[in-house]
Amino acid sequence: MSASSSYINSVYSAHSPRLRFLTSVSSPTSLVHLRLRSPSFSWIKRCALPPLKPHFRSNSTRASAAAGDRETLTSSSVSFRDKSPSDVRVLVVGSTGYIGKFVVRELVRRGFDVIAVARERSGIRGKKTKDETLAELQGSTVLFSDVTSLDRLDESLSGLDSPVDVVVSCLASRTGGVKDSWLIDYAATKNSFTAGRRCGAKHFVLLSAICVQKPLLEFQRAKLKFEAELAEEAARNTQVTYSIVRPTAFFKSLGGQVELVKDGKPYVMFGDGRLCACKPISEPDLAAFIADCVLDEDKINRILPIGGPGKALTPLEQGEMLFRLLGKEPNFLKVPIGIMDFAIGVLDFLVKIFPSLEDAAEFGKIGRYYAAESMLIWDLETGEYSAEKTPSYGTDTLEEFFEKVIREGMAGQELGEQTIF
């Protein structure tokens, strides 16, 4: 059995309440921070670590050569967790995404020294300009780079005046397409880890997803592969620690029908509306939890599933809540789940003839997955999803979110291109 397969099996086992979501590496390690102030000393030439194990090495000759020319970062005897936030440098990748921008704001609010990595044209379909990104990420130092290129990322970070302590990755494929999933959820995330380590980072906070418990989709497999490699690296190197955050559904993913129902359309759901459930979490609450992972020692080397406050809600209950808030009589359109199965079967057949339909087939599978699978902890003992075992965090409720969308619309909650409703 491969190391990655062993990790994935351990992840499933980790959902046993007896193991409390601990991975095989459970001991906190002393993390270090170094700040060199002499103007005659360029710290960046000393910030690279020795080459990582083979599966973390870059294929880039230039990046590898540059790393080999640098000296090893000298460790401080003081853990960054013992310092004030203003002396802790946090590198955030995926900083302009739906969750990432809130993570940057929360870290800035808490007083951390935040470096936000962003594309020159960010947002959905690259609509945001540099100036708009700078305004959105106020309080942080913004570096424009490309996380899909380790060379570009190394070059962008080479000008920093002090080492990085923590890397927070909020990277995620916007489409869920096959190639895009492996490019972003695996390769770009891995690049961010590697570049961060070369600049002294000792802790890696990874925004993953609770749905990787049952990996049937490409983006789930890509996320799990990096999770496995991250855990393996921490097992080999006691100077590396991690926190893997697996949230449930986001508010925006449940708000796509609010304006339609407000305009008199029926609320669409699959089956009887009870096929799945979730404990949705708001972006500020999730950002706060991710920020907690920067310093909290009880979150070291752990997989951390997290949901929002309150009970788990099925699509039927979400629809009933929406009609109540609108003062309308419930009007549901129930779609047989078998329709999606038929469509996926057709697309799977066609993709063998027309490979260009690969992503269309994957999008169908994504829709089918979210229509039938709960975003809750999968209990291995019962073989069912468990709302009771899914941790809750925060104060924002879905009802409050629906009320806001009814008043103001979905501005700022863009759902991207691949949506069902």
Automatic annotation (TrEMBL):
InterPro entries referenced in this protein's UniProt entry, alphabetically: DVR-like, NAD(P)-bd_dom, NAD(P)-bd_dom_sf
UniProt xrefs under SUPFAM superfamilies: NAD(P)-binding Rossmann-fold domains
Pathway(s) where this gene product acts: Porphyrin-containing compound metabolism; chlorophyll biosynthesis
Keyword check for Transit peptide: yes
Domain NAD(P)-binding: 94-296
Subcellular location: Plastid, Chloroplast
Substrates-to-products reaction catalysed: protochlorophyllide a + NADP(+) = 3,8-divinyl protochlorophyllide a + NADPH + H(+)
Known EC number: 1.3.1.75
Molecular-function GO term, any one: 3,8-divinyl protochlorophyllide a 8-vinyl-reductase (NADPH) activity
Protein name according to UniProt: Divinyl chlorophyllide a 8-vinyl-reductase, chloroplastic
Organism: Aristolochia fimbriata
Lineage: Eukaryota, Viridiplantae, Streptophyta, Embryophyta, Tracheophyta
